């Protein structure tokens, strides 16, 4: 069995490890870091650069994971390989999107049936990309699955390094909550979908416990035996426009569908269990 990853990034590496253990051959594209792809157990291809080899892999793939994000409002994988993907014989195609497509819901619960109403440019671009993939799938009967990811954390992407360095910040915006997901739980959900395809399905990937970001930082500090950073009021805090934009949306994302349809049992159902595991593994 062969998996092709278009845009082999952080999350794809965790899926590669699971599939490698089951005897799959994995190929992943990268712009400039083939050693990182190789370290995950996948064969690297440069894209841009190795387009003909990528097309060969599309033709041979049993599964295709699209992890490359939109660029200037356009999906790079569709722009480069749309006709090739239209002819693929893969029995599973996964597209990694974001819960940002739902927009702001004032902290209320949302699920996969919630209308899409993004408020950021990133969210609008993802909606456009999702629609483009859905149109290609409809036109060519492709087994497309869309996964909307919450905030990703995991080894190398935790708060501990910043807390130790004294650079972590605890920004407080009343009523603000985020959903998040450990990278290992992303991988196990993708694997479950590959094993039980349901073309056309859309899944939210997040844990059970949406929480204010300042609570996560405070808990991580407690685990380290450090005093939490001082609370900073969002309204007056100095932040980059990009950082501030992440606070434009507040919602609690439901993950009931991955449990019901895919039988996923989260390894890290909340940030407390996920952070404890990261610290026990010596990670940041």
TrEMBL record:
It holds the Pfam family Epimerase. Its EC number is 1.1.1.290. The keyword Oxidoreductase applies. Keywords: NAD, Oxidoreductase. One of its GO terms (molecular function) is 4-phosphoerythronate dehydrogenase activity. Residues 94-205 form the NAD-dependent epimerase/dehydratase domain. This is SDR family oxidoreductase. It comes from Paracoccus broussonetiae subsp. drimophilus.
């Amino acid at each position: 069995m062969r998996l092709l990853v278009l845009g082999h990034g952080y999350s794809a590496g965790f899926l590669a490890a699971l599939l490698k253990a089951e005897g799959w051959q994995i190929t992943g594209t990268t712009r400039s870091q083939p050693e990182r792809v190789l370290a995950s157990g996948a064969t690297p291809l440069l894209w841009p650069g190795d387009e003909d080899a990528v097309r060969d892999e599309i033709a041979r793939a049993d599964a295709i994971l699209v992890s490359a994000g939109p660029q200037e409002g356009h999906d790079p994988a569709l722009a480069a390989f749309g006709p090739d993907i239209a002819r693929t014989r893969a029995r599973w195609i996964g597209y990694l999107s974001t819960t940002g497509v739902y927009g702001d819901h004032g902290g209320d619960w949302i699920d996969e049936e919630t209308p899409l109403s993004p408020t950021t440019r990133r969210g609008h671009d993802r909606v456009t990309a999702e629609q483009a993939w859905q149109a290609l799938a409809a036109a060519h009967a492709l087994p497309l699955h869309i996964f909307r990811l919450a905030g990703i954390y995991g080894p190398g992407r935790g708060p501990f390094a910043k807390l130790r360095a004294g650079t972590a910040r605890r920004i407080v915006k009343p009523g603000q909550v985020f959903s998040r997901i450990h990278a290992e739980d992303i991988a196990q959900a993708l694997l479950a979908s590959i094993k039980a395809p349901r073309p056309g399905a859309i899944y939210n990937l997040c844990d059970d416990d949406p929480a204010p970001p300042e609570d996560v930082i405070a808990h991580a500090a407690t685990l380290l035996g450090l005093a939490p950073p001082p609370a900073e009021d969002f309204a007056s805090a100095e932040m980059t426009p990009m950082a501030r934009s992440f606070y434009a949306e507040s919602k609690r994302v439901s993950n009931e569908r991955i449990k019901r349809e895919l039988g996923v049992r989260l390894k890290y159902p909340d940030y407390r269990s996920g952070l404890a595991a990261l610290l026990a593994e010596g990670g940041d």
